[in-house]
Write a structure and sequence with these properties.
This protein is mainly alpha-helical. The protein has helices spanning 2-5, 28-40, 49-63, 69-81, 88-102.
Amino acid sequence: MSEINTIKTTSQLGLNTNRNTNAPANSASDKTQGVAVNSSSVDTVSLTDTATQLQSLQQTLADAPVVDNDRVSAIKAAIAEGSYSVDPAELANNMINFEQQLG
């Protein structure tokens, strides 16, 4: 019973309850206003050059593969041959730069 007492009434919610509920839903004035609004409004959309470029870039990125399989194969082959070397200083700098970019 306590849940019922906590429900707000429509006047507490700030709703407009001063509506004429006896008026027919499709009165002549409503029809006239609806026709005037529909006949005079035309929806148009135009994209700026920047939006067009962004859309093109987004499509290019979507078409690009997530992984460069050729590079992965080349690195795997270099590791298998024993010719792949890692420069510790460059790796450390890249890790520091990455961490700084994250904030």
